[in-house]
Specification:
The protein contains eight helices and seven strands. The protein has helices at residues 19-22, 33-39, 42-55, 78-86, 124-130, 143-156, 173-187, 193-199; strands at residues 9-15, 60-65, 110-113, 133-141, 160-164, 168-169, 189-191.
């Protein structure tokens, strides 16, 4: 077990663990996140962490990405083109359902964001304040987009940030490793899900 202490009230934040992003077949298979999620056993690792949080009575929050029916996307970027062509992540579809292995329980909030900012289109920040949350354990897909953005947003709000390295992944392995070793440790504690569980 690593030598660190859990500070204050902790919450688990599960980001974009939905069918279209983490399971195949998917209209977003071209991004490779589904393959990486399976290869890295991200879902079982998050499931174990989720069970530990629930056992301790600690809060769990989910954020799901959706694409508005009417949206104007930027002209450049593979992500924008892929979203427009695939018509993925529409509300009311299987795409935006959280994977079965991580199904939320009653009372565990599911918030919907677009496109990357977890706070601008949700009341997540107010929910954290209401719950007296000081430490956030951040998990989900993908490292290069949602997780990286969320890490900066949480750090900017001065939350104690913990990122279990085996609970995040990305279809772009080079980007994943660069962020995991070069950026995320600057913003928070990078460890493993087993280590987090041991400190709860």
């Amino acid at each position: 077990m690593a030598d660190w202490t859990l500070h204050g009230n902790a919450a688990l934040l599960v980001v974009h663990m939905q069918n279209a992003i983490t399971k195949s077949p998917s209209p977003l298979d071209f991004m490779g996140h589904q393959r990486a999620t399976a290869e890295d056993d991200v879902i079982p690792h998050i499931a174990a962490l989720l069970a530990a949080f629930r056992e301790k009575g600690l809060p769990v929050f989910y954020v799901v990405a959706f694409t508005p029916d009417e949206t104007s996307s930027p002209a450049y970027g593979l992500f924008w083109r892929g979203i427009e062509e695939s018509q993925a992540n529409r509300l009311g579809t299987r795409d935006v359902e959280i994977v079965d292995e991580l199904t939320p329980r009653d009372g565990e909030p599911v918030l919907y964001n677009w496109p990357f900012d977890l706070f601008r289109t949700t009341d997540l920040e107010q929910r954290f304040k209401d719950g007296g949350i000081e430490t956030v354990v951040l998990v989900g897909v993908s490292t290069g987009m949602a997780i990286n953005v969320a890490a900066y947003q949480l750090a900017e709000r001065f939350y104690n940030l913990i990122i279990p390295s085996d609970c995040i992944t990305d279809g772009n392995r080079v980007l994943h490793e660069a962020l995991l070793t070069g950026v995320l440790p600057v913003l928070g504690l990078v460890t493993t899900h087993d280590d987090v569980i041991a400190h709860l």
